[in-house]
Write a structure and sequence with these properties.
4 strands; 237 residues; globular; 9 helices; 50% helix; binds glutathione; alpha+beta
Length: 237
């Protein structure tokens, strides 16, 4: 049985199954990337719900695993060389799980770099920009009288959606013929922009037919349906 006691995070979120990969997350667009990937590859794991609105990511136990204080993070008892490995940043976690499982990344070098390219496009572009749309359209920023910041991020979100739409007009998935970690990273964000932020009309989503079509296919995958709700939200006390 793996011993994870050297990792302070396990004192606050004890591992019931220390031999399984431990996932610390919330079903947000960044969080579900990892639960969807784990569901796709079928690797046994134990999810822990982190109460981000109670600032649990800023506790010493959480920061010991991710000094950046964000979900998702993982602790794999069976990392490289059979030793435990902790990781944060959803993109890094997706690449790690793809390498570990031999799934969701093309085998050939050129295909692999193409998938990583689209993954980085999500990490550096879609995630941060769509997040700002959420802030200025749904959260505290919506009350700002000056709409220029909102308009700036909406324009950038539209531009990014047009890039994705063009790409999906020429290939089935972002990296090419096959579904990959680039799609697992990107579609939860597009889904969130439309459903949770309610910004579909604002960004003119109906103009992006390829995006809408591939998003619908993505949302039908059983692993996606499950992963979108993991970790389950605790019932209110
Ligand atoms: N680049 C990071 C972003 C992670 C991130 O922003 N996580 C958000 C939830 S989607 C979070 O932990 N927010 C809690 C907080 O900032 O306190 C990743 O992709 O892992």
């Amino acid at each position: 049985m793996a011993d994870l006691s050297a990792f302070p995070i396990t004192s606050r979120w004890p591992a019931e199954h220390p031999d399984r990969l431990q996932l610390y997350s919330v079903p947000t667009p960044n969080g579900v990337k990892v639960s969807i990937m784990l569901e796709e590859i079928g690797l046994p794991y134990e999810p822990h719900f982190i109460r981000i609105f109670d600032n649990e990511t800023w506790t010493p136990e959480y920061l010991s695993l991710n000094p950046n204080g964000k979900i998702p993070a993982i602790l794999d008892p069976n990392g490289p060389g059979g030793k435990p490995l902790s990781l944060f940043e959803s993109g890094a976690i997706l690449i790690y799980l793809a390498d570990k499982s031999g799934r969701m990344l093309p085998d050939d070098a050129a295909g692999r770099y193409t998938a990583i390219q689209w993954l980085m496009f999500q990490m550096g572009g879609i995630g941060p920009m769509f997040g700002q749309v959420g802030f200025f359209h749904k959260f505290a920023g919506k009350d700002y009288e000056d709409k220029r910041p909102r308009d700036r991020y909406v324009a950038e979100a539209k531009r990014l959606l047009a890039v994705v739409d063009r790409r999906l007009g020429e290939s089935a998935w972002l990296a090419g013929d096959d579904y990959s970690i680039a799609d697992i990273a990107t579609f939860p964000w597009i889904n969130n922009l439309i459903k949770f932020y309610g910004a579909g009309e604002l960004v003119g989503i109906a103009d992006f037919a390829n995006v809408e079509r591939v998003l619908a296919t993505f949302l039908e995958r059983p692993a996606v349906v499950r992963g979108l709700n993991i970790p389950a939200r605790p019932k209110p006390a």
